[in-house]
Amino acid sequence: MKNLVILGGGYGGMRVLARLLPNQLPEDVSITLVDRVPYHCLKTEYYALAAGTISDQHVRVAYPEHPRLTIKYGEVTNISIGENKVYLKDEEPVSYDDIIIGLGCEDKYHNVPGADVHTFSIQTIEKSRKTYQVLNNLTPGSVVAIVGAGLSGVELASELNESRPDLKVKLFDRGKHILSAFPERLSTYVENWFESHNVEIINHSNITKVEENTLYNHDEAMQCDAIVWTAGIQPNKVIRDMDVEKDQQGRVVLTKYHSLQDNDHVYVVGDCASLPHAPSAQLAEGQAEQIVQVLLKRWKGEELPESLPVIKLKGVLGSLGKKHGFGLVAERPITGRVARLLKSGILWMYKYHNG
After folding, report:
1. Which helix (H) or strand (E) holds 281?
2. Which of 17, 108, 144, 299 has the fewest CB atoms within 10 Å of its CB?
3. CA 242, 248, 250 angle in degrees (round to 5)?
């Protein structure tokens, strides 16, 4: 019996399970899924959990059940490619024949002193819960600084404005416009929304230091009651410690079949993989689809295709509270209620198909 080990029950890991179970898994293959928590978490919705507009239950989806699926709960500390083993904290190692590494990402603090100690995060469900407690225990008039105005920072700021309009939310961004990865038209739309909702945007910011309840922008101290960091990500530390080829962002360089350059039994999916697009749930799912096809052919002893199709992304959507949104669909900008309804519908469909 061959053992396929999946590290991480994120969007990539879930898509692999959805494609192999219940009927596609060969009789001589079993699956071991390793994760820290006993359910799949909807990471794209952590901003709403932290802001307090949805409950914990809304971001959880049960893992599938199957006689040849074993779910092991634990924290991965090391992956030994030479031994074909995964080492877990305070647990026995797990052996594999094939492995899919989808351990996700962590906050990147860009060497800003104190940022890793004195800021809150929405990168994991545990950290999002802690951020929720802090933000929702603040007294009226408290100042919340959100560092980083990409998609996560913008969604958190807008949702927090809806949940706690009594707070003073300040959004810090290094660029001339927030949402630098989006067309300027969308950035302007979101900036106008924030202006009408009394969320302060501080452009051209440069966070040089963070102390307890104090943020230094261009070395100028600013008192805050809570600071949330959404200014960049990096691969999980286990990946950063692996002795494999990586790109400038520390993501693993892969073959066209999503495996290591010198080992076709080790695959990397999602935030840890070096790909032409920015990390996203969609990209991880597209990768997972292709990894499943490659595995099925390899298990059957069939020849792999000369190339795999380019992973096509449908677009990206962001919310501005419960009634407004923005995004790119088929590279066309959309704003307002339609964008928000689309995002809600996609989330409902995902939970329906995976729940």
Report:
1. helix 281-300
2. 299
3. 30
Task: For the chain, give the mean pLDDT.
Answer: 96
Task: Describe the crossing of helices 281-300 and 11-20 by its angle, rounded to 10 degrees.
Answer: 40
d(C-alpha 145, C-alpha 119), whole Å: 9
Range 93-102 average pLDDT: 98
Helix (H) or strand (E) holding 221: strand 220-223
Beta bridge partners of residue 354, listed in sequence order: none
- What pLDDT band is residue 353 in, cutting at 50, 70 and 90? confident
Whether residue 93 is predicted with pLDDT greater than 90 in this model: the reply is: yes
> In the beta sheet, which residues pair with residue 211?
214
d(CA 38, CA 59): 13
- Residue appearing with tokens 């600071």: 227
Residue 330 is predicted with a pLDDT of 87
Task: Determine the Cα–Cα distance for residues 58 and 41; give it in Å rounded to an integer.
Answer: 9
Characterize the bridge pairing of strands 168-172 and 200-202.
parallel
CA angle 259, 293, 354 (to 5 degrees): 105
What are residue 87's DSSP bridge partners?
78
Secondary structure class of 334 (helix, strand, coil): strand
How much is the pLDDT for 204?
97
The HSE-up count of residue 290 (CA atoms within 13 Å, CB side) is: 22
Q: Please, what's the b/e burial string for 97-126 (b: 16 or more CB within 10 A of its CB; e: otherwise)?
A: ebbbbbbbbbbbbeebebbeebbbbbbbbe
pLDDT, tens digit (0-9, with 9 covering 90-100), for 124-165:
999 999 999 999 999 999 999 999 999 999 999 999 999 999
The dihedral built from the CA positions of residue 329, 335, 338 and 341, taken in this order, carries a sign that is positive
Percent of the chain as helix, strand, coil, to the nearest 5? 30, 30, 40
CB within 8 Å of 44: residues ≥ 6 apart: 281, 347
Closest CA to 308 of 355, 267, 255: 255
pTM over 0.85: yes
| 49's tokens | 């959990």
Count of all residues that appear for the chain in the document: 355
